[in-house]
């Protein structure tokens, strides 16, 4: 692993049973659609089958499970990279000695337990829409270098993306890494694995 490239991998983000159940639900869904990039469907850029599960009542339990897995990874991520939380908002906390507000510092995050840090993270970060994607070996992929920002997003959701996370649901294939151009790094998918990057 490259040092300080801001890419982290967390094992066992979901159980094997949860991964298998999500794959099965995906395969039996009537909402599968061609994968899109910001500007629409361009299979030469991204060739996948997708379901955006956020906001669908029948997927609410899956959305909750995925967001909880992401939150667990986020707490670990913030412990390694506390300025991900500190820098954007200049948060304040009461000083224990004086009671007066002071800027949140790295040592404050280090001293928080996971529940307190998770609560703070939920106040600062808003999860985006969850998109389940299936790539077929030899016929799919997203080989176009891209980032997660898209300025023509009417909801402006993509302009607020600070962290990206992915959970792999399966493994056992020869190709299909997630590659980061400037970090010179490839993450090989393994089931139950979550990676985050800022």
In terms of topology, how is this protein built?
Layout: E1 7-10, H1 16-27, E2 33-34, E3 49-52, H2 60-80, H3 83-89, E4 92-94, E5 101-103, H4 106-111, H5 114-124, E6 131-134, E7 164-167, E8 178-180, E9 185-187, E10 194-197
Antiparallel strand pairs: 1-10, 2-3, 3-6, 4-5, 7-10, 8-9
Task: Explain this structure.
- The chain is of the alpha+beta class and 198 residues long.
- The protein is built from 5 helices and 10 strands.
- The strands form 4 sheets. Strands 1-10-7 form a 3-stranded antiparallel sheet, with helices on one face.
- Helix 2 (60-80) crosses helix 5 (114-124).
- The radius of gyration is 18 Å and the shape is globular.
- The mean pLDDT is 88.
Main β sheet profile? 3 strands, antiparallel
Structural class: alpha+beta
Content of β-strand: 15-25%
The helix tally amounts to 5
Order of helices and strands: EHEEHHEEHHEEEEE
Distance N to C terminus: 16 Å
Task: Summarize model confidence as the mean pLDDT.
Answer: 88
Radius of gyration: 18 Å
Strand order in the sheet with the most strands: 1-10-7
Low confidence ranges: none
Strand segment count: 10
Task: Estimate the helix proportion, in percent.
Answer: 25-40%
Shape: globular
């Amino acid at each position: 692993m490259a040092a300080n490239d801001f890419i982290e991998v967390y094992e066992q983000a979901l159980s094997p049973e949860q991964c298998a159940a999500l794959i099965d639900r995906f395969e039996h869904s009537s909402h599968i659609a061609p994968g899109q990039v910001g500007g629409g469907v361009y299979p030469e850029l991204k060739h996948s089958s997708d379901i955006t599960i956020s906001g669908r009542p029948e997927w609410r339990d899956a959305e909750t499970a995925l967001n909880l897995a992401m939150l667990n990874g986020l707490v670990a991520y913030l412990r390694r990279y506390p300025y991900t939380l500190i820098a954007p908002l200049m948060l304040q906390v009461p000083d224990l000695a004086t009671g007066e507000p002071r800027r949140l510092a790295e040592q404050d995050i280090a001293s928080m337990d996971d529940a307190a840090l998770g609560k703070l993270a939920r106040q600062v970060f808003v999860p985006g829409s969850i998109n389940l994607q299936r790539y077929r070996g030899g016929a799919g992929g997203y080989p176009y270098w891209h980032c997660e920002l898209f300025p023509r997003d009417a909801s402006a959701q993509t302009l607020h993306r600070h962290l990206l996370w992915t959970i792999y649901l399966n493994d056992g294939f020869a190709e299909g890494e997630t590659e980061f151009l400037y970090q010179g790094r490839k993450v090989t998918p393994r089931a139950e694995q979550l990676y985050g990057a800022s």
